[in-house]
C-alpha cells in the first residue's frame, strides 16, 4: 500500500469532493454554495501536491447566486447556492453536474440541477449550464459500456426525507430518456445522498453518504448485476465513518472511490478536524484515505487520519502542497459588481468601491474580496490607506461564513474609530467594541487565529499594536455547510467610496 498523503489534501473550505483521474492527472472539485467564482478545480499528479487551476462557474452570465441565502434551522445552517458537484470525463470531455439551491420566500429550497462541460480543463473555460429535471440534490453521472448515460441523485421524497434515484439522460439537451426510479434507500441513516455508481467485475456498485453531514455521517454501499437493481447492501456497512470514535477527523463522509495508475484503491471524502472542546473552525475539508477493492469483493476504506507514521519524512521536499494560479482563489459573495474591484498591480493590493449593502444582507453582494482560510494557525492582515477627508465608510478585515456569522475588525471613518464586531445569528451572539484613534495615513489590521481563538489587533500609523478583542473559536463553530473565508470589505452610508487596501495577507 502506498504512503497516504498528509491530510487534509485540500485544507479549509473544501466540502463534498468529487474526483476523476485522466491518465496520470487527478482533477477534483468542491461545493462553494453562495460564493463566486464557484466550483474550484484542483489538479495533482501525486495526490500530495495540488494546484487550484480555475473555477467551473467563472462567468456571472453562467448562473445567478442572488438567492443563495442561508436558512437557520434548529439543527443546521443550510446555505443555498452550489451543492455537491460531481466531475466526470468521457470522450475527451469533462463534465460537472451540480445543484443550485434557490431560497426565495415563495419557493424555499428549490433545486435547479445542471450540467456544464469543457474540452480543455486547463484553459479554465466552461460552458453555459444545460438544465435537467431532478427534484433533489447531489447529482452524479455514470457512463455505461453500451453508451448510455445515467444520472443518479438524492431525490426529495418529502421535506427532510430522501432516497437515491436513477434515470437515463441526454447530456446535450438535459432531456430524460427514461423514467426516474428509486434504486436504494440506504441502510436507515437519514438523508441518503451523494451517490456515485461504479461498474466493476460485472457488478454495479452504488456508494452513498447517509446519516447527515455531521455526527452520523457515513459511507455505505450496495450492488446489483443490473443498473436498475435490485441492490444488495454490503454486509459490512458502513464502509467508512468516524461516528462513535474519538478520532480527530470527524464527520467523515461524501466519498468518491478511485484507483491510481498502479491499481491502488483510494477514497477522497469530506471531514472536519475536531478539537476536544468541540471546535471545528475550518469547517468541512477534503481528506484522502487508502482502501481495498479486490476483484468481486466489496470496497473498504481505512480510517481517515491526519498524519500517518512516516509521511512527513517521505514528503519533506519543501514544495507547497497547495498552490493556486494567480487570481483564481479570490472569492466574492453571491453576484458581485466586479467593476468595484481594481487591482493595484499585485494580488496583495486592491481598491474596493464601497456599497451600502453590508455583510448581513441575505441576497445582495457586499463589497468583499477574500480567500479561503487554509491554516489552523495563521495571521491575516491588511493595511488601509486613509480614505479622503469627509468620507463616511466602514472598511476592514473579516472572517466571513454567511450573512448570519462573521467576525470583523474595521476602521469607521465617520467617527475616526477602530472597532470589532462578532455576529452569530445561529448562537444568538452579538459582541462589539470601538476605540477612538488618531487620524493617520495608514491603519494596520490583523487577525491572528489558532484552533482555539481569534485575536483582533490594530495599529495606527507607526503606533504600537493594540489587541482589540480575543474571541473563542467556538463562537464561530456551528453545524453548517461552509467554512471560513477571510478578506477585505468596505460598506458606506449611501456614497460610494474608493478604499485602498495594501499588503493583504490571508492565511
TrEMBL record:
It comes from the Eukaryota. The record marks 138 as: Important for catalytic activity, responsible for pKa modulation of the active site Glu and correct orientation of both the proton donor and substrate. Transmembrane segments: none annotated. InterPro entries: ConA-like_dom_sf (IPR013320), GH43_C2 (IPR041542), Glyco_hydro_43 (IPR006710), Glyco_hydro_beta-prop_sf (IPR023296), Glycosyl_Hydrlase_43 (IPR051795). Keywords: Glycosidase, Hydrolase. Residues 326-501 form the Beta-xylosidase C-terminal Concanavalin A-like domain. GO terms for biological process: carbohydrate metabolic process. Pfam families: GH43_C2, Glyco_hydro_43. One of its GO terms (molecular function) is hydrolase activity, hydrolyzing O-glycosyl compounds. Coiled coil: none annotated. PANTHER family: BETA-XYLOSIDASE (PTHR42812), BETA-XYLOSIDASE-RELATED (PTHR42812:SF12). Belongs to the glycosyl hydrolase 43 family. This is Glycoside hydrolase family 43 protein.
